[in-house]
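Sequence design from tokenized structure. All designs in this work follow the same two-part layout: the structure record, then the generated sequence. An example of the structure record is given first.
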């Protein structure tokens, strides 16, 4: 192989490495920018659609300011939270819920989303209490899952073993998954955090959490 051929191959190899290194840096930034821009545009469009033309921020100010809808939404959520924190606000919420409770179809939808929201967003009790490893969907095949609580009621009474509620998320969309009941002794607790487990699941195993001291060794 001539010197020129070796030199050309070396240059191509270097350029390829530089290109993929650039991709690793640019892709996360670009995707983050696209998601944030989509969210900002969505909130802006929602704000403009509900406001009368005379209160349109673009017309009042004379120029388009991105993010006005997002800021307005955050302020609205904050105001509703402040209102609901006092006695008058709680009375208003209770009155609204009593009205919704009288509407057959709307009642079921509202109660479902309210129960899910209370579980997921309540800071006093984490929706996902523990990351565990379970044999699912069959023996000798393992899945990373989340313990969402201890089983109770009829499903616990008809079994002799203590069951825990398990949510098995799907990849790459962890918001969907399977709800299963597993005997507590058949779960293996993991030391990784819930956030680290989500990264592991979303990436399909490509983003691995740092290895920590196991729970058994920690107690020894």
């Amino acid at each position: 192989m001539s010197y020129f051929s070796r030199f050309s191959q070396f240059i191509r190899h270097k350029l390829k490495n530089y290109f993929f290194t650039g991709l690793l840096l640019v892709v996360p930034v670009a995707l983050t920018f696209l998601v944030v821009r989509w969210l900002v545009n969505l909130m802006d469009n929602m704000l403009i659609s509900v406001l009368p033309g005379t209160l349109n921020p673009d017309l009042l100010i004379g120029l388009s300011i991105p993010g006005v809808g997002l800021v307005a939404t955050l302020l609205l959520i904050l105001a509703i939270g402040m209102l609901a924190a006092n006695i008058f606000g709680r009375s208003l919420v209770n009155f609204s819920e009593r009205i919704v409770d009288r509407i057959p179809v709307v009642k079921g939808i509202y109660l479902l989303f309210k129960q899910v929201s209370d579980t997921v967003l309540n800071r006093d009790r984490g929706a996902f209490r523990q990351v565990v490893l379970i044999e699912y969907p069959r023996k000798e095949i393992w899945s990373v899952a989340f313990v969402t609580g201890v089983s109770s009621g009829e499903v616990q009474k008809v079994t002799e073993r203590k069951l825990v509620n398990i949510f098995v998320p799907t990849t790459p969309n962890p918001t969907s998954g399977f709800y299963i009941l597993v005997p507590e002794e058949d779960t293996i607790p993991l030391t990784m955090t819930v956030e680290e487990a989500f990264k592991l699941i979303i990436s399909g195993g490509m983003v691995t959490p740092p290895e920590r001291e196991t729970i058994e060794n920690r107690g020894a």
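DSSP finds eight helices and five strands in the chain. We note this feature because it recurs in several other targets discussed in the main text.
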